[in-house]
Amino acid sequence: MRYSHLTDRLQGLGGDKWAIHTLARHMKREGRDVIELTIGEPDVPCPPDLIQAATAAMVAGRTGYSNGRGEPDTLAALAQRYTARRGRRFGPENAMTLPGTQTALYAVLCTLLGPGDEVIVADPMYATYEGLIAATGARAVPVTLHPEQGFRLQAADVAAHITPRTRVLFINTPHNPTGAVLRADEIAALGALAVAHDLWIVSDEVYEDLVFDGVTFASPLDLPELADRTVVTASISKSHAAPGFRSGWCIGPAEFCSRMLPLSETLLFGSQPFIADMTTRAITQNSPVARGMATRFAARAQTIHARLHGLDGLSVHRPEAGMFALLDIRATGLSGKAFAHALLMQTGVACMPGESFGTGLAGWLRLSLTQSDAAIESACTRIAAFTENPRTI
Ligand SMILES: Cc1ncc(COP(=O)(O)O)c(C=O)c1O
Question: Given a cut of 80, is residue 291 above it in pLDDT?
Answer without folding.
Answer: yes
